[in-house]
Amino acid sequence: MHRSSYSRKTLAIGLAVSILAALLLINNPFTLEQAKAQNFDNARVADCALAELGTTRATGWDQPGECIKSVQRWVAEAGGYFGWGGVISGYTNSGAVQVTATEATKGDILQWTTGDDNDWSHPHTMCIVKNNGNGRFWIVQSNWDHPGYVSESKDWDPDPAAHGRSGYYAMYWRFGTVEPAPAPPITGGHDVVGATAPATTSYFAEGTTRPGFDTYFCLQNPGTEDTVARLTYMKGDGKTATQDAGIPACSRVTVRPADVMGTGDDAAHDFSTKVVSLTTQPIVVERPTYFNYKGTCDGGSDVVGATAPATTSYFAEGTTRPGFDTYFCLQNPGTEDTVARLTYMKGDGKTATQDAGIPACSRVTVRPADVMGTGDDAAHDFSTKVVSLTTQPIVVERPTYFCIKRNSD
């Protein structure tokens, strides 16, 4: 009887505790809510923050002048929701997405924390207006310069230790949606000497469909008869691909190699090209290329195709000074392998050589800096003589990418 009574009491107590816990979870405003996506313009958060610059509000627990209460207000005014929770869980439970310092952009929130979700001793909450790109930010904050005062800093160091908050670290959160930044426009110009006559065959040693490069072939038929051009792409992996294009009489057609080769960051997407008119009608071919090279320089280049390969080619210009990436693209359009020898005639009077094997119907890229290194002197300026060491003629181009500063005078 005693054991039965004890069991009933234990059961009743357990049930009461469960009900009480459930009630607390339902009614506690600090209960973490389920994450949910927020469909509003994230940049609006920063606009709402900027609109309050120079204003002051009351401070203290749960007062509107506190830094986090200000950020919650700016998110709400922008059309989002920033609810209750801990220093970190308040974000995750409101559907915010953590981003990196590099990704942080207008409207994102910069939060200092010790990593303890319940440590509200000295955190600080700010709204980012602009990522300056150098590890610093333009931010709007409340309750920093003066109690409850909304201020800005256009060169803010996000490291808490730089502001006397050792033991803290920065986290970055996003509540709204961010439109992808439009690709920067490619700028530049190019120039080319006109062909003195059309030809039935043209060669191009350089070509690529790597990311950041848009390569085209422009085909002109100046005659009175229609023709078809066949473009044979001799790739860096030793394989080939073809693309045919009909060209009406007295007309022009544009061909995009990526339509058959796709895009990829490997040798299979580097190629040389042989363009042949499949009738007796000669044509003129140019290869314009537009590029953003490694995110450091953009522009375009254009060249008229060579009408025949040769066993020797000369290039007066060339450098491996800082800010210049110089290459040689070697095309072997024949059926026999060959070896090319590049002799670099340097500005200091010395020479250097570099050999490159070129399989039949293939393309190879050579980088002079691999043997000459880089330096800001005449020893790193050079002219080049390229010779095929067999009877197999080749086609050679010298693409150069550069990012240099102009002289101020």
Give a summary of the structure in a few sentences.
The chain is α+β, with helices and mostly antiparallel strands and 409 residues long.
Keywords:
alpha+beta; elongated; 25 strands; 3 domains; Hypothetical Protein Tm1070, Chain: A; 14% helix; 6-stranded antiparallel β-sheet; disordered N terminus; 4-stranded antiparallel β-sheet; endopeptidase fold (from Nostoc punctiforme); 6 helices; 409 residues; 33% strand; single chain
Report the sheet-strand fraction. 25-35%
Percentage of residues assigned to helices: 10-25%
Number-wise, the strands total: 25
Largest sheet: 6 strands, antiparallel
What does the overall shape look like? elongated
Low-pLDDT runs: 1-13, 15-36
Q: Name the average pLDDT.
A: 89
- What's the CATH class of the largest domain, please? Alpha Beta
Question: What's the layout of helices and strands?
Answer:
Elements: H1 2-27, H2 43-50, H3 67-78, H4 89-92, E1 97-99, E2 109-113, E3 124-131, E4 137-142, E5 150-156, E6 169-174, E7 201-204, E8 213-215, E9 217-221, E10 227-235, E11 240-247, E12 251-255, H5 258-261, E13 271-277, E14 284-286, E15 289-293, E16 297-301, E17 312-315, E18 324-326, E19 328-332, E20 338-346, E21 351-358, E22 362-366, H6 369-372, E23 382-388, E24 395-397, E25 400-402
Antiparallel strand pairs: 1-6, 2-3, 2-6, 3-4, 4-5, 7-13, 8-15, 9-12, 9-14, 10-11, 10-13, 15-16, 17-23, 18-25, 19-22, 19-24, 20-21, 20-23
